[in-house]
């Protein structure tokens, strides 16, 4: 478990539409823009190696700063490798969600924000549980969805995955709209996230607007 001192008041933030990071989950990223290479370099110099993922916000009245949602999730850089042409492949492991209070002006080419960790204490604890999860019904729905989209997956791994890993991985990987991803992020519990995910899948099966699917 990450100690409180690893959760600073000011963090770098990476606005990326549709890229969802959840606590205790892993998000691979490909960095190539100079400002984000600088962000990674600065993050690696700190003991916590934290980068905050946040969705850009196009809905008037919901910004905490210029064009950012108020809720994001911070991740620790747990893997990184450099390509021959100077790009980086990194993995962020989700630690905790945060509430964005205000953007911080400074001399960095990337954005930084003052954040609050209050209200997300459960993110730092053990895996969340979903006591009312009907896995059989959920897997049947997922099978219909993958079949309708002509997608393939490792069904054995999905069947063997723990509830939180299954729900969070699908929330991150399925290619829903950014606002749908934000709803999945803001879900207060694993049960609520699973219910939201089921609603989005059912909507897509009815011919909704969610686009084809694996990012």
From TrEMBL:
Database matches in Pfam families: LON_substr_bdg
Domain of life, source organism: Bacteria
InterPro entries: Lon_prtase_N, Lon_prtase_N_sf, PUA-like_sf
Ranges where the Lon N-terminal domain occurs: 11-205
Signal peptide: none
Stated name of the protein: Lon N-terminal domain-containing protein
Organism this protein belongs to: Roseovarius marisflavi
């Amino acid at each position: 478990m990450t100690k409180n001192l690893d959760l600073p008041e000011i963090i770098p933030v990476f606005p990326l539409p549709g890229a969802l990071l959840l606590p205790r989950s892993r998000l691979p990223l490909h960095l190539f823009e100079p400002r984000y290479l600088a962000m990674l370099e600065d993050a690696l110099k700190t003991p916590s190696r934290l980068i905050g993922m946040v969705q850009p916000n196009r809905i008037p009245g919901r910004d905490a700063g210029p064009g950012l949602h108020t809720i994001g999730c911070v991740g620790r850089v747990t893997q990184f490798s450099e390509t021959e042409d100077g790009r980086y492949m990194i993995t962020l492991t989700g630690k905790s969600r945060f509430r964005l209070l205000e953007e911080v002006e400074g001399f960095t080419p990337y954005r930084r924000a003052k954040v609050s960790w209050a209200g997300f204490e459960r993110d730092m604890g053990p895996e969340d549980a979903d006591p009312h999860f009907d896995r059989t019904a959920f897997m049947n729905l997922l099978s219909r969805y993958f079949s309708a989209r002509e997608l393939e997956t490792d069904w054995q791994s999905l069947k063997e995955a723990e509830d939180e890993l299954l729900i969070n991985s699908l929330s991150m990987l399925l290619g829903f709209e950014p606002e749908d991803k934000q709803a999945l992020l803001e879900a207060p519990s694993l049960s609520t996230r699973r219910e939201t995910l089921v609603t989005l899948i059912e909507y897509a099966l009815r011919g909704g607007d969610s686009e084809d699917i694996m990012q």
